[in-house]
Please model this.
Amino acid sequence: YGELVLFDVNRGRHQADGVVQRFPERGTKVEPVVRDRLADYSSCARDLLKKAPEYDYIITAEAKGIPLAHEIARQNNDKSYFIARKYPKLYMTGIFEVEVKSISTDKVQHLYLDVAEAEMIKGKRILIVDDVISTGESTKALRTLVEKAGGEIVGEMAILAEGDAQNREDIIFLEPLPLFRPDGTPIE
Model:
């Protein structure tokens, strides 16, 4: 038994207007009161696939883009997709790596694939997928990785485009994600 209560982060941990969802005792079916299609990877994947260019494989960066990439691949009956890792993994038989200096953080970012995955990308049409595109640094790093592996980038897709990214014509997204000032007013 419990309650789901929303808080307004702009006003600290002050309660929003009322309880959003009450949970009964264990084993009782509960119908959601709040439905958010952006949190539903199945719907997002379906809607993004309608807008997607033809591709051979999709790639995403670890970690937030993985559920979306998985669902897109599942719905499209793709046999595999690629995850660019932040660190080399023990399963990798050889390491294929790119190093990209981030403009926004002034730090060096590394992305890794297994060499066998990099070989599969060579000469193929690759679609970059992420949950949110904001500054574009993550997708830029993925572009560098795909290009180094010899793949052809056919597009970049995300559920949300934040800030200036929503004005870009080179990305596909479902909804804009507005930015707000600390007082809660939108940044134009």
Observations:
- The chain has four helices and nine strands.
